[in-house]
Amino acid sequence: MKLTLHIWRQKARSNKGGFQLYTLADVSEHMSFLEMLDVLNEELVVKGEEPVHFEHDCREGICGCCGAVVNGEPHGPKSGTTLCQLHMRHFHDNDEIWIEPFRSKAFPILKDLIVDRGAFDRIIQVGGFIAVRTGSAPDANGITVSKESSDLAMDAAECIGCGACVASCPNGSASLFVSAKLSHLGLLPQGQPERLKRALAMIRTAEAEGFGYCSNYGECEAVCPKRIGIHHIARANCDFHKASFMVYQGTGGKAAVG
Amino acid sequence: MSALAAYWRSAVGKKMVMAVTGLILFAYVFVHMLGNLQLYAGDGGKAINEYAAFLHSTRAAPLLWAARIVLILCVVLHVWAAIVLTIQAWGARPVRYAKRVYREVGYAARTMVWSGPIIGAFIVYHILHLTCGSAGLPFQELRAYENVVNGFTLWYVSAFYIVAVLMLMLHFNHGLWSWFQTLGWSHPAQDRARRCVANLLTAIVVIGDLSFPIAVLAGLIKIPGGVA
Fold first, then answer.
1. Interval A102-116: pLDDT, tens
2. Is A171 within 8 Å of chain B by CB?
3. Residue A185 CA: distances (Å) to CA of A209, A220, A227, A241, A252
């Protein structure tokens, strides 16, 4: 098939970007979206032009590296899939495709379609962990977990941190990502000791990074390649309300005097 | 106190304030609609005018002013939080998308920021019309029935009222559902139930409120013996 591509090109973070028009002939319907971009880049290299930069790693939908907004939808028009798992058979001959990077104040564009998602790492750093005793392996099944909690926690743990939730949210909110991490750890017994502190720290950090807040639009849930639900955001809110008034802060374990 | 200040500074805290004040304002609109159902008493306005007289009597004055103060406080907090949050949201995406397709965002959710100010403007006008009597429309102190009928007989008064109630419908529909989410009351098993509760409560208020101007225009509610 023949395609007309409008691709966002931007030299570096500080440069002004813009759309550039490319035409690509003989695109196989069996190609993935990223393979289609590979073919375009091969042509560009032959012509001595700068190839289109885009992030990718596993190309099997589990690493969370890839992602771009295709015709107005993060990861393209198919639901429950990453960009690398989107195949060209979902497009038609002579289609016009607009490809843009994920846009958010907290995700500065590094080059073309690559954005800096370091903000997500910094959110994880302040609470996305549990404290465990190191040494010999603990007994398997030593701690019991209910099936319901384990199911919900594993649903949340599917989050690959791709950032499509932020890209799709009209408010540029990272609430789905943050809440997935909070549910993933907070629903399991191992995550209890830091549960409230974690909610406070991760939600505050997300706000400080420049992400918006949740307006309960539900758009993130609709575009999430792992179909993570916004009920996790409600749980995160609940933990945040509790944490705001129940977590000791800076008293060194002693209750504040006076 | 510092915990409360930090809570208010956070967006989740402000959303909570919006949820709580929003629910109080909704409850008021609901009760207000129930009171106005007395327009249908078919007694030429005796019931609703006595109700109005009771609310404005010295006996009910402390209650009336307590309600007014709570409502004003709710409106101030609701609007304040909304403005701060909206500015924050607009700043979160400095460069807009060239193409944008929404899969899930509904019309009501996307227009909260516009339905809100329209409702606000309507409330000011509504109070000037039926509480202060200074909207340039026919008004007699404590004659609620006559004031409503004389007002809604004018098509443009009814039209503005209907538009405002439709805005209220959009605002409540998203707001009530959001309320569960912001409070943290959510589970996949209850998703449908939450949607139903929000739709049902919205429908009751909207159908009740819309019926008043329509009934006046249709001649179902009228002043016995013509214009008073």
1. 999 999 999 999 999
2. yes
3. 22, 20, 18, 18, 25
